Amino acid sequence: MTNTIPTSRTDFLDRIRVLLTALVILHHTAIMYGAEGGWYLRYKAGGMASGLLLTLFCSVNQTFFMGMFFLLAGYFSTRSFESKGARQFLTDRLLRLGVPVLVFGFVLGPLTNALAETPAGETVWSFWWYLMSRVDFNIGPLWFAYALLIFSVAYMTLRLLLPKLRWNLSPAVLSHAWIVLFLVVWGLGAFALRLWVPTGQERGLLQIGYFASYILLFFFGCAAAQARLLENIDKKLALPWGWISLLTIPSLFVYAILSGALKGGTFHVNGGWTMPAFAYAMWEPFVACGIMLMLLWRFRVSANPSALWKKLAPLCYAAFIIHAPIVVGLGVLMQAWKDYSLSLFFLVGGASLILSFGVAALLVKLPGARKIL
User: Any signal peptide, and if so, which residues (predicted)?
Assistant: First the structure.
């Protein structure tokens, strides 16, 4: 038996996608200017305070922004599967996810590498051509599309193999008790995965250490679509978790300071049988939950949102795809002032937002682009 799911998209969820896309661009800009993390081009932070602020920004982002992308993707995947059927669903996924992965991996990824690492005496264009000619695949931020393609195929396969399984959750799960259980499973899952693959390491082009939340949130989104659970988050549920998130954010940093991290002490959170790794794995879900619930509630009830949100929403995916060479290119252009890391984060971050969405607006006008972007 198949479920009948309304196919209309909800505007407030599209507005959240705009915000998440902007955070991705700013996140990578922050890493470029000294925050902890991996990126094509990195400069040393101009001071300890700048480094700590940028790292805090990225640490909080990391708890929720990609997971929320997967949550929304799952939410709309169910509707797409119900309305299109398995064959068309798979065709669409291969087109919208597979093609951008290939284009970025073989063209835009090498371009971003060339912008960041062109050797002295060569031009960016010659080095870019060299990287492409040797089939230098670089997946970059498009790991998200690659992972989402895998999740989509897994979801479709489960739907076909288990046609009688009810893919819908009751509104009863929107309770504090169920949320606590979900977050504990999330944290324990992250801790367990990081015993195998610590954060910062890859397996099959993916940072598996972060995938406990991605898997849980994607399939929760799939199961939440029937009852439109994301459209039923209210103040009574969201506000307490918003406070919990706010109070949880500084706790990990206080723990690190008390452990002597600022004095050179060991405080490794990437993985392993250590208390810092366990604390980090449990810290993430309790920070992320309140932020996600607050976004779902506040964006839904906001009155008279700006028309700009509606103009930007169709450009999110293209902006996401194109932002890496833009961020890195601007970073190279502004390298003479790289010591002013916090100021450049705002300047280059803002310019990257404008250019990424601006280029996206041009890309979506290309013939056939709408089928992919």
Answer: none
